[in-house]
Amino acid sequence: MKYCAFLRGINVNGTRMKMAEVCEVFENCGMQEVSSVLATGNILFSSGKNEAELKNILEEKLSSHFGYEAFLFLKTENEVKGILEKNPFQAANNFHHYVFITSENTASLLNEKFEICQKSEGEKGILLADVFYWQVEKGNTLDSDFGKILGNKNFKEKLTSRNINTLEKIALKF
């Protein structure tokens, strides 16, 4: 089966990794057809193992190899393409569009948090089929009320986010 591993916290806050080295760790764990997309921790690979087993193996090996607490989220090729197909937002020059890759039931928690936040002009959050999509004005991502919540350490093992453009690049490389 083909997967994308979405690593959390890569090349931010002092956690620096070369994607070629990350790919080597995946290969040393027995993954096939390993490649990266951008430098933000998106690793494409194939494996016959189940998702729970893959998550445990890869997080353990990444943690020991790089000396940090690794968190990753796995999506199959079909799941990534399904997320893109359901994207409720139209491209707009003045907005970023994000998708949250989460552990089970976290997307509904994000939706609850979003609902109580003060929103900027045009900022929207939409929960569709356990995927949370967020539209925020460019330049306001980290300053928005919702953006500040996302940096909370309580979320580190529950989610990571990607710009929708990143998911489009991933889908093209599958």
Q: Could you describe the 3D structure shown?
A:
- With 174 residues, the chain is an alpha+beta fold.
- A hairpin with a 5-residue loop joins β2 and β3.
- A four-stranded antiparallel beta sheet has the order 2-3-1-4.
- The model has no long low-confidence stretch (mean pLDDT 92).
- The protein starts with a strand and ends with a helix.
- α3 crosses α6.
- The longest helix has 16 residues.
- The chain is globular, with a radius of gyration of 16 Å.
**CATH level 4 superfamily of the largest domain:** bacterial protein sp0830 like
Portion of residues within helices = 25-40%
Distance between the termini: 11 Å
**Shape, per Cα inertia axes:** globular
Proper CATH architecture of the largest domain: 2-Layer Sandwich
DSSP summary: helix tally: 6
Radius of gyration, taken over Cα atoms and rounded to an integer in Å? 16 Å
Q: Whole-number average pLDDT?
A: 92
The CATH topology label of the largest domain is: Alpha-Beta Plaits
Based on the structure, what is the oligomeric state of the protein chains? single chain
**CATH top level label of the largest domain:** Alpha Beta
> Which structural class do the helices and strands define?
alpha+beta
Outline the biggest β-sheet.
4 strands, antiparallel
Number of DSSP strands? 8
For the record, the count of structural domains works out to 2
Which regions are unreliable across 5 or more consecutive residues at pLDDT < 50? none
Estimated share of beta-strand residues? 25-35%
Order of helices and strands: EHEEHEHEHEEHEH
Largest sheet: spatial strand order: 2-3-1-4
Protein name: DUF1697 domain-containing protein
Organism: Kaistella solincola
